[in-house]
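Private note to self, pasted from the team thread so I don't lose it. Backbone tokens:
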């Protein structure tokens, strides 16, 4: 049976996959600069006898064709970039590129997909259909490697009927995975706001236009965009984490600078919210004698896991891992550029458990102490191979 064969192969390649992950982990590269990583992936694809072509500068795409005839195509995606974080872990595979760290597990996704590719290559004679491997750059940086790859045609020639991605999840124990059908992750927009007034002596407010008080009103009023205009059934978040009014106890500054984030799960509402926030902030500033420049930098769209595909994939995962190892995920208001694939094709983005509390492996992604329980590779490569083969109709 194909399941047993995949399990045997995934055990056989486990040590190599871990070695690949450790190599990538100790040589992290920032978004859009994945040069050595790209060469590493290219070499591994060549070793498997796979042709590849480059996209978005450092991205790579390769095809594995099953020997049996079929027009079905599915795509498997991994991201390759690291973050500007200095690693605090004292491990043999610690980052050798100071100030850069694979703190979001993209080393895990890349090495895992290489392992999946190896399994699928060895089983080519046994399945029908084509698997497109996508190694993309720059998940962590706007405009996102996914959006560039899609513009350059990664979802054409051949066009996949489904796209799969996996992402590490330190909240789930290694050996388990998580799924959520439907809307899963948020769109994220960055807000940059300058509230302008006229500064002066703190003792003479009547002669000044106080941008601090204007800002206080704006910050409070903007929350009503979420609490009064958003559909309560659909989540929205508005947070301002930076507010700079650089006056003094007795100095009213000329302007106040704000930075924030707006997240939601509905594209139509996203557009409306942008207009409402801008109008409200500008209106308040103007009514109080000042002005406001409200700039929105659009981030990724929301991520949606296609219902039927996700239900079917979840079923394959239960079949491969056992029901007890497949969990339900909650909505997660972070963003992920896999969302671009999910907006363009039926997609399923699931979570790979990487936690091991007994070894102290519990840190969140994007922290200097993030690490994974490498036992997760015992399931990650084989599971993806299994669901790919199943989804192709085998
Ligand atoms: Zn990340
Ligand atoms: Zn990530």
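Design output:
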């Amino acid at each position: 049976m194909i399941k047993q064969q995949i399990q045997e192969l995934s055990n056989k390649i486990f040590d190599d996959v871990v070695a690949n992950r450790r190599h990538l982990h100790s040589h992290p590269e920032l978004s859009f600069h994945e040069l050595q990583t790209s060469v590493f992936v290219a070499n591994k694809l060549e070793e498997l006898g796979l042709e590849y072509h480059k996209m978005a500068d450092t991205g790579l795409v390769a095809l594995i064709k099953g020997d049996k005839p079929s027009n079905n195509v599915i795509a498997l995606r991994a991201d390759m970039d690291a973050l500007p974080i200095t690693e605090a872990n004292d491990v043999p595979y610690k980052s050798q590129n100071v100030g850069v760290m694979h703190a979001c597990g993209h080393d895990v996704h890349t090495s895992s997909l290489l392992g999946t590719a190896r399994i699928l290559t060895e089983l080519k004679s046994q399945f029908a259909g084509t698997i497109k491997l996508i190694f993309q750059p720059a998940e962590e940086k706007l405009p996102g490697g996914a959006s560039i790859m899609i513009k350059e045609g990664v979802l054409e020639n051949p066009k996949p009927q489904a796209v799969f991605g996996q992402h590490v999840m330190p909240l789930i124990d290694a050996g388990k995975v998580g799924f959520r059908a439907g809307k899963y992750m948020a769109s994220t927009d960055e807000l940059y706001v300058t509230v302008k007034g006229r500064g002066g002596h703190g003792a003479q407010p009547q002669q000044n236009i106080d941008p601090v008080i204007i800002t206080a009103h704006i910050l409070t009023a903007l929350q009503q965009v979420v609490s009064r205009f958003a559909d309560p059934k659909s989540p929205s978040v508005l947070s301002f984490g930076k507010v700079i009014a650089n006056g003094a106890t007795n100095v009213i500054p000329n302007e106040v600078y704000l930075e924030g984030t707006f997240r939601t799960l509905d594209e139509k509402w996203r557009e409306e919210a942008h207009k409402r926030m801008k109008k409200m902030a500008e209106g308040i500033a103007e009514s109080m004698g000042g002005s406001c420049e409200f700039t929105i930098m659009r981030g990724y769209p929301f991520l949606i896991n296609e219902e039927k595909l996700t239900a079917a994939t979840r079923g394959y995962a239960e079949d491969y891992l056992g029901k007890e190892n497949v969990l339900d995920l909650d909505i997660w208001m972070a963003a992920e550029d896999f969302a671009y694939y999910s907006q363009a094709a039926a997609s399923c983005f699931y979570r790979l458990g990487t936690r091991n509390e007994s070894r102290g492996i519990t840190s969140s992604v994007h922290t200097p102490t993030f690490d994974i329980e490498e036992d997760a590779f015992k399931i990650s490569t084989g599971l993806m191979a299994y669901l790919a083969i199943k989804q192709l109709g085998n």
